[in-house]
UniProtKB/TrEMBL annotation:
InterPro entries: DHBP_synth_RibB-like_a/b_dom, Sua5-like_dom, TC-AMP_synthase, TC-AMP_synthase_SUA5. This is Threonylcarbamoyl-AMP synthase. It is an enzyme of class 2 (transferase). One of its GO terms (molecular function) is L-threonylcarbamoyladenylate synthase. Belongs to the SUA5 family. TsaC subfamily. Residues 4-187 form the YrdC-like domain. Gene3D superfamilies: DHBP synthase (3.90.870.10). Its EC number is 2.7.7.87. Required for the formation of a threonylcarbamoyl group on adenosine at position 37 (t(6)A37) in tRNAs that read codons beginning with adenine. Catalyzes the conversion of L-threonine, HCO(3)(-)/CO(2) and ATP to give threonylcarbamoyl-AMP (TC-AMP) as the acyladenylate intermediate, with the release of diphosphate. GO terms for cellular component: cytoplasm. The gene is tsaC. It catalyses: L-threonine + hydrogencarbonate + ATP = L-threonylcarbamoyladenylate + diphosphate + H2O. HAMAP family: TsaC. The keyword Glycosyltransferase does not apply.
Length: 187
């Protein structure tokens, strides 16, 4: 995706409500437009993931996440931990804005969000102008794909665009922490 035409093709896929595959800090992710219910439902169907589990949003900056997060509910004493960890591979579960759709939050009144430091994802979010849904590229309960070839074999035409750029080098998916309590959901 190092050239502009590839970036443009990935953005076009997102704008059309399609699902793309892209590299993140540690694993390949499946992503789509978080505001497009049909796109999110398609992603959940591809992954065989129940909507009740909720999804992660990945962004270039915190401003892109403000539409989905109830920022007023974040205590001042928690903000330093959150904002000092970004950009990076730390996902925070925060209070969701009342307007955040259930197809993103699932059964929860929270939303999992991350400001990434992965250059490819940053460029995608900058060009798209908002965050992406970000979930590991695998069928629920199975191992994550480790290459573009493996992803294409597993997902074929279900994924409209494959962003063929390197992973970020982390060995584990992002840590997920509760912004209110600090409890670790995934370490």
């Amino acid at each position: 995706m190092s050239d502009l035409s590839s970036l443009s093709a990935a953005i076009t896929s997102l704008e059309q409500g399609d699902v793309i595959l892209y590299p993140t800090e540690a694993v390949y992710g499946l992503g789509c437009d978080p505001d497009n219910q049909q796109a999110v439902e398609r992603l959940l169907s591809i992954k065989q993931r129940p909507v009740e589990k909720g999804l992660i949003l990945i962004a270039d900056n915190y401003g892109q996440l403000l539409k989905y997060v109830d920022d007023a509910k974040l205590p001042m004493d928690k903000r330093a931990d959150i904002f000092s960890s970004w950009p990076g591979a730390l996902t925070w579960v925060m209070p969701a804005a009342k307007s955040t759709p259930k197809w993103l939050t699932g059964q929860f009144d929270t939303i999992a969000v991350r400001v990434t430091n992965h250059p490819t994802v940053k460029r995608l979010c900058q060009q798209f102008g908002k965050p992406l849904v970000s979930t590991s590229a695998n069928l629920t309960g199975q191992a994550t794909v480790t290459s573009i070839v493996e992803a294409q074999q597993q997902f074929a035409e279900q994924v409209s665009f494959y962003v063929d750029e390197p992973l970020g080098g982390n060995t584990q998916p992002s840590t997920i922490k509760d912004a209110m309590t600090g409890n670790v959901f995934r370490g």
